Fold each of these.
Amino acid sequence: MVPRLGEEEAQAAAEAVRSGWVAQGPRVARFEEEFAASVGARHGVAVSSCTTALHLALVLLEIGPGDEVVVPSFSFIATANAVRYVGATPVFADVDLATGNVTVATVDAVRTPRTRAVVAVHQGGVPFDVAALRDAAGRWSVSLVEDAACAAGSTAYGRPVGAGSTISAWSFHPRKLLTTGEGGMVTVDDPQWAARLRRLREHGMNVSAADRHASTQPVLESYLETAFNYRMTDIQAAVGLVQLGRLADLVAQRRALAARYHDLLADVDGLTPVRDPEYGETNYQSFWVRLDREYATGRDEVLAELAAAGVSARRGIMAAHLEPAYADVTPAPLPVTERLTRDSLILPLHHALTEADQDLVVDVLRKLAR
């Protein structure tokens, strides 16, 4: 992933610096409002990362020791880590082979009476079936947190990912389409939740630092609960506002490049690229391919051959339950997760990718398929 950053972002950041207001301030407030509107949510609360967004979501839901939270192992490790931050127990669910996402069936298979929440991931920008999983969460009386780290610009059932969500967490890391360097967002519709999230990200203060400094009268703030320092800076938000204006073009460009990959790879036996699910469209934050039994070469050798040809590809999405940090966890069988993390790789897909670059990638994959 190569972030698309240019002179407009540089100027926006410089203007924030020159303004003298570089901490959380008016640009953050504007970015929250415009990002929330873009994903169909009523409120956005900017934070320092998607990891802190997930943490605050679980704090808000009062998840804690003795509770279980169902998460996919097939995700960046932060998804599971956030559950441990609040003292709860992550329970790993398997995923769908085509989308890499949890489903109603895979969650239900590991759900117990202690399950308080599900953190479902729109993996690599591929939306999960929001209608089905939201309905199931309601029937189960559990909270659904949407890890939309990769999903800005993706859609489900004709609406932006995030629309209709109880609570969603977003990432603006440089590997995402929309970046602020580091940074994240929580989106909700409930105004009381939004107000508490704003307190939680700022030490539990009953008035924000920005409002306190803007007041013409002395403000004696109070601290309502033990909370955190998870703020975004105005410099980051200035960059984010420019990036948000580029998002639709970035998604369109990536989808065009993905369509070309699909055309070029259509006759390569044993190789299955990620595609749109029937109910939505992915932003192709990641373009991964699965190597099936018919493919003649193992995944690690494919990565080595691509590297030798000057192509920077990556292993597929990790499986958290296979990492040393979770060696103390014995999950239910996760055959699809383990197959995907073993047999998939992520191909280059970014705004600077040329047709010649794609042709080189496909030539190597075609040769190794024989």
Amino acid sequence: MKLSAKVAIAVAVLLAAAGGGYYLWQGRQGETAKGEKTSKGEVLYTCPMHPFIIKDKPGTCPICGMELVKKVEGTQADAKALEMLGHVSLSPTQQVMANVATVEAKAIPLTKEVNAVGIVQYDQSRQAKVTAWVSGRIDRLYVNSVGAYVSRGKPVAEVYSPDLVSAQQEYLLALRSRDRFKDSPIASISQGGEGLVASARQRLLLMGVKERQIAGLEKAGQPNIRLPIYTPLSGVVIEKLVLQGQYVNTGDPLFNIADLSTVWVEVEVYENEFSFIKLGQRVEIVSQSWPGKTFSGQVSFVYPFLDPKTRTVKVRVQLPNPGMKLKPDMFVNAMIKVPLGSAVAVPVAAVMDTGTRQVAWVETEPGMFAPRDVKVGARVGDMLQVLSGLKEGEKVAASGAYLIDSESQLTGNGGGHAGHEGHGAAPQPGAPAPPKKNDGMNMDDMKM
């Protein structure tokens, strides 16, 4: 019995020693294999959108469902991994909380509306002065007040001029001389009568006598004591400069006349919009004095200089004025519609202007957004014309773009403000990103 016990104890000791040696050998082998694997670079997998999610085998991200990629350090990152660093992924809950809504970039016909204020002015091509062609006395005025309407065919005043009476007498004498010497056999005498008549007639014309008045002078055979004065155009008297009985000299102005059937509107267009203005464009004019009434005109001239105080360029609009409803110096509002053709457009809120860049967040996959540099043109209402950077059919964040950009900053991705002063720069490849809170996060998937 003693011998059997001793043998059993010896066998147990040998088995324990063998087991312990095997365990130690397996541990050393595992440590050696782990050391060799570590020296070669352990293959780990992470989510490009959530770099704090680390796994030792392929799979999907428990937060966004994105396919995991190999986690590499430093310069070992490939182009695709570097590109994904700028992306931001949002769960449906996050999109609702951030009020993120997407809209599709579409090619639509755009019409730019240039709105400006203006002042009604006289049409300078339809203004005239009534002046005294001869010196004399205003014996009679047919227009006694400013604002009176005058017609081209009716006299506005009558003037007595001794010089004019003398010129009429000379013309009548020349007519008699021509009739007396026209049958003379001497050619120089017969032709000289015609020359005297032509010279006297020309003098009357230079004194402002009309052809029909000369014809009446020939018919009457005696001079007119008072000469009627006519206006060169029909319109409204805007200035009255003489009184009845007043003596005037040759060239003195008597009245200022303006034809208000057509007026000018000089509108002031800001310097960032006047490049859209072209001659002949249709302009709609509205005035507070005539609610619901729209006047239409055309751009007739763009002034070649800019007002340094208001930073505006004056644009002249010529338009008819039926009933003389538009009064000079009246304030009006003008709208010019400029067709831009068909172009890709997105809402104004979809484009972030950082000062040096214009960025739109494009939805590359459901819930995944990537920053895209764009170049925009004219703003049409709440839409922006996109010149480059976006294609028709691409979806962009129409609201919540700034929140997406903030999310990108928090994760260290840079986002739309990367490189912009006052915002974080894009991280270096392989640099760790700070963790963030997410709904539905599985703590077992993280290796802190």
Amino acid sequence: MIPMLGEEEAQAAADAVRSGWVAQGPRVAEFERRFAAAVGAEHGVAVSSCTTALHLALVLLEVGPGDEVIVPSLSFIATANAVRYVGATPVFADVDLATGNVTVETVDAVRTPRTRAVIAVHQGGVPFDVVALRGAAASWGVALVEDAACAAGSTAYGQPVGSGAAIAAWSFHPRKLITTGEGGMVTVDGADQATRLKRLREHGMNVSAADRHASAQPILEAYLETGYNYRMTDIQAAVGLVQLDRLAGIIAQRRALAARYQEMLAGLDGAIPVRDPAYGETNYQSFWVLLTPEFGASRDEVLAELAGQGVSARRGIMAAHLEPAYEDVAPPALPVTERLTRDSLILPLHHALTEGDQEHIVGVLRKLAGR
């Protein structure tokens, strides 16, 4: 993933520096409003990363020791780590083979009376079935947190991912479609929730530092609860506002490149490319290919050959339960998760990718498959 950054972002950052507002200020507030509107949410609260967004989501829900939170193992490790931050226990669920996402069935299979929440990931930008999972969570009396780190601009049932979500966490890391360098967002539909999140991100203060500095009269702040320093800067938000203007074009280009990959890979036995689910559209933040035994070469052999041909591909999405940090967790059988993390690879997909690049990449795959 190569971020699409240019002179406009550089100028926006420079303007923020010249303004004197380099910490959290008016640009952050504008970015919150505009991003929330773009994803169909009522309120946005900008934070320092998607990891801190997930942490604050669980703090907001008052999840803690003794509680279980169901998460996919097939996700960046931050999804599971956030559960441990609040002293709760992560419980790993398996995923659907085609989408890489948890389903009602895989979540229900590991649900217990101690389950307080589910963190469901829109993996690689592929939306999970929001209607089914939101409905199930409501019927179980369990909170649903949507990890939408990769999903800005993806849709489900004709609406942006994030629309109708009780609480969702977003990432603006450089590997995402739009970036602020580092940074994240929590979106919620409740004004009271947004107010508390803004307090939690800023040391638990009842009034923001920006509001205190903008006031003509002294304001004596109070610290209402234990909070955190999870703020975004105005410099980051300035870049984010320019990036947000680019989002529609970025998605259109990525979907066109993905469609071309899919067409070129058609008929190549043993190589199954990711596609849109029936109920939505992915932004193709990641374009993965699942290899089956019919392909004739292992995933690691394919990665090695691609690297030798100058192609920077990556292994498939990690499985947290296979990492040393979670060796003390005894998960249920996760056959689909382990197959996807072992047998899939992520092909290059970015704004600088040319048709010639794609032909070279797919040519290497066809050669390995003996075609």
